[in-house]
Amino acid sequence: LGEPLVVQREGNGIVLGKRRSTHSSILDNLEDPKLEVQAECDLHGHTVREAEREVHRFVRESQQNGTRWVLLIVGKGLHSQGGKGTLKSHVVDILSKGTPARFVLAFRTAPRHLGGLGALAVRLVDRL
Questions:
Q1: Which of 95, 88, 82, 13 is nearest to 43 (CA)?
Q2: Among residues 16, 31, 56, which one has the least CA distance to residue 114?
Q3: Which of 25, 50, 59, 92 has its CA 20 to 30 Å from the CA of residue 18?
Q4: Class of residue 82 by CB neighbours under 10 A (exposed 0-12, middle 13-18, buried 19+)
Q5: Which residues in the chain land under pLDDT 50?
């Protein structure tokens, strides 16, 4: 799993991160309106540093527990300075380039019923 995650940002705010080898069915599942996650982590109100620590812990523990589908709630940044959130872009960087990236198969802006632009649906790699 040494291959890096490639991140695509679409004009409508949707973000997709995946390894080149990620099967298209996993990407389809990430945007499925019926997607059910097995665990979630709410990062609302966290500083970037706190969120980074929490993402590291949550992703590592989830993967070690055999959890595959998780949700990271980052918020839309409506209460941030200037109304533009920074947490989401930092979490995208952590998932794609940080230590947790080795546990991540793919991630995408969550389907609307799971928070839409304010959350990221993540598919973790199977337990090693």
A1: 88
A2: 31
A3: 50
A4: exposed
A5: none
